Amino acid sequence: MKVLVKWFEHLLQNSKKNSSKNLRDAQLQYLCTMIENTVAKKSNAVAIWLLIGVGMIIIQVLLGGITRLTGSGLSITEWKPILGAIPPMNEAAWQKAFEQYKQIGQFKHLNFEFTLSDFKFIYFWEWFHREWARLIALVFLIPFIYFLAKKMFRKEMVNPLIILFLLGATQGLIGWIMVASGLNDENLYVNHIRLAIHFMSALGLLVYTYWFAMLLLVPSTQLVVAPSLKKFTVGLLVLLVVQLVFGAFMAGLKAANFATTWPTINGEWIPSSMANDGLADFTHDPLAVHFIHRTLAYLMTALIIVWHLKAKKIVGGSLFAKLRSLPLLVVVLQVILGILTVLFANSKTALLWLGVAHQFTGMMFLLLMMTMVYLVRKK
Asked: What's residue 44's pLDDT?
């Protein structure tokens, strides 16, 4: 309505000055421009909201990494999505939380020397990790309601964005299922399979949000038609997903601590223990998982070099031309960080910083490859 009012005012102002035959065409062109600008402003606002969500999800995944590397994940033994937002506020509440932690195997067999002060440290990271998830929910929900009321969404985006919010809620539930796997007398840590599911679902939420932001921000003129490169890029993305799964297995099994050597794995190129348990080795044996993760890293690097050489030959798309060298640079950085993480796995401080950096670079590589998949089209 505001656009029509402005157009009408513009029409009145110019009708006295211009009585030519082209007046109607000029007014129509003005109206189209006004509508296009209004739509662009709405799309940019929604895109910025989505990108804020992308940034917050990245931080959430990194907080999850810090929580894991500091051994904080099992410190809160209850799941209270609403009431859990408030941490213990007095000494009695802290003692109660500490007593609950003392009932699980991680305290009995690993952290039995913990003081209340030690417990407060690990409690903070798990609480902050959960609190950030609550903040993400608010940042998604409140603007979503506002944009919906103001009709700032394209019609085809409403249902996918509702699905996005539901996926976020499901991610919280998956997180609790993962934590619950370690709340017993036997396990010292959470189940690594559940950890991988939690990690990959978070990355799924990340790329889902990022994809919709690209739909709003990247004009069709930036798309590049290269059918063969498109297939290659999708194949690399699939391989990257598999690599990320094994990265989660590495983290959950603490497989880096089983072989803090490079380039060999404890003096062997192929761990001899891999032949012991058959297929179970590929998901449960730390050395086997370690070997697979390294091998996939080498394979990914080689394939990215080939991809880079092919991408350099593609003409068109200024955005693609600017970004096509980044996958090679990022994958090399990621391999270096992976090697350093392994070499310093027995140093808690170094492992914390390197592990988080390795995780962050992995997410950047994933988003970069998603960008390439978006930009390169079959036709």
From this structure: 84
Query: Phi and psi for 268 in degrees, rounded to 5?
Result: -120, 140
User: How far apart are alpha carbons 379 and 372 in whole angstroms?
Assistant: 15
- Residues 290 and 196 placed together within one structural domain of the fold: no
pLDDT score recorded for residue 22: 57
- Of the chain, the end-to-end C-alpha distance in Å amounts to 38
- Number of domains into which the chain is organized: 2
pTM above 0.85, yes or no: yes
**Position 122 confidence tier, pLDDT thresholds 50, 70, 90:** very high
Domain assignment present for residue 39? The answer is no
Position 321, amino acid = A
Q: Retrieve residue 128's tokens.
A: 């902050």
CA distances from 113 to 108, 109, 127, 187, 305 (A): 9, 10, 22, 18, 50
Could you please report the per-residue DSSP string of 89-143?
A: -SHHHHHHHHHHHTTSHHHHHTSTT--HHHHHHHHHHHHHHHHHHHHHHHHHHHH
Q: Domain range spanning residue 333?
A: 218-379
